[in-house]
Design goal:
Keywords: Fatty acid metabolism, Iron, Lipid metabolism, Membrane, Oxidoreductase, Transmembrane, Transmembrane helix. This protein is an all-alpha fold and about 350 residues long. About 50% of the residues lie in helices and about 0% in strands. A two-stranded antiparallel ribbon has the order 1-2.
Length: about 350
């Protein structure tokens, strides 16, 4: 895909500008708050209301287990291993992570990787499949862009060329097979917790149904929205302590750190995409990096690209220079910074 001229402010070509009023601005804020808080608050309220009747400790334990199993499949497998090649995994681990990620209902492994590499190649400019700046930087355009980046892009007619963005996985027989199994793995993602709940619940069908609801459907719903929030919120709000490429407005958003397993340290990630740890500063929770560290100690992962102090210092912005997330002009950063493309060789700083 060729780069399209873009000034960082106007809507992407083909999308007309939108006007705004104070009322529209209030609606934007209200809808944003609803998108962020409603899914989690709904789950908490449902658990509180149904405790002892429609949900129990077994359901929640199973939900937690499958949430982190499939979540690490996405964050460690799809993202850090297969998209950015932050480490090398033994074949069994590589395939296992791809299977676990496929059970998250976020698309086949090859499609997911290709889409994400395309996102990095065109971050927040024409060509990005899910930028919240697609419709401009005005309040109404931002509201439209937020919905688009969160899940609206999934319904658009803008397919990603997997042969261009993920030729390595297309050429890998194991990844082709796992991609082809995506529908079956989605069924397994719901069937396994249901069967586990049924067996633990003395083979009562009601135990299987509640496990299906909470450890299956609700778990998938929550993980999807957390992932989508990295696409949307982590380009609109938060901090930007590190320099990124021109127009790239990725942010660090600490409230999502635990549920996203470290993926919400998004500005840090976009500053150094192939680094295995995204939460690089003191107190920044990054469970995915911890899992990679465990794999490394077990001998299952090698060539791990851990943070390099020199690169961090080179990319770190002073507090006065750190740009505001929604500022178009602030996204113009020094052109001398390395431009890590979707298939660029890994820069192993030692």
């Amino acid at each position: 895909m060729a780069a399209i001229p873009y000034d960082g402010v106007e809507p992407f070509p083909g999308h007309p500008p939108t006007a705004t009023t104070p009322v529209q601005r209030r609606i934007q804020v209200a809808v944003t708050a609803l998108l962020v808080t409603a899914p989690l608050l709904g789950l908490v309220a449902a658990v509180w209301l149904l405790w002892g009747r429609g949900v129990g400790a077994v359901d929640l334990l199973l939900a937690g287990f499958f949430y982190f199993l499939t979540g690490f499949g996405v964050t460690v497998g799809f993202h850090r291993l297969l998209t950015h090649r932050s480490f090398t995994a033994k074949p069994a681990l590589r395939a296992g992570l791809a299977v676990a990620g496929s059970m998250s209902f976020q698309g086949s492994v090859i499609s997911w990787v290709a889409t994400h590499r395309r996102h990095h190649a065109f971050t927040d400019r024409p060509g990005d499949p899910h930028s919240p700046y697609r419709y401009g930087t005005g309040p109404v355009g931002q509201l439209h862009g937020l919905v688009h980046a969160h899940f609206g892009w999934l319904f658009g007619d803008d397919p990603t060329d997997v042969d261009h963005f993920a030729p390595d996985l297309v050429a890998e027989p194991a990844m082709r097979r796992i991609s082809g199994m995506f529908p079956v793995l989605c069924v397994a993602s719901l069937a396994l917790p249901a069967l586990a709940g049924w067996a633990i619940g003395d083979f009562a069908w009601t135990a299987g149904v509640t496990a299906l609801i909470w450890a299956g459907l609700a778990r998938v719903f929550l993980l999807q929205h957390v992932t989508w929030s990295v696409n949307s919120l982590c380009h609109l709000m938060g901090t930007r302590p590190f320099a990124t490429r021109r127009h790239d407005r990725a942010t660090n958003l600490w409230p999502l750190a635990l549920l996203s397993m470290g993926e919400s340290w998004h500005n840090t990630h976009h500053s150094d995409p192939s680094c295995a740890r995204h939460g690089v500063d003191r107190g920044q929770i990054d469970l995915s990096a911890g899992v990679i560290r465990l794999f490394e100690r077990l001998g299952w992962a090698t060539d791990v690209r851990w943070p390099d102090p020199r690169r961090l210092a080179e990319h770190r912005l002073s507090p006065a220079a750190a740009p505001a997330p929604a500022s178009a002009s602030a996204s113009v950063l020094p052109s001398a910074l390395p431009r890590t493309g979707p298939l660029a060789p890994r820069d192993r700083a030692r």
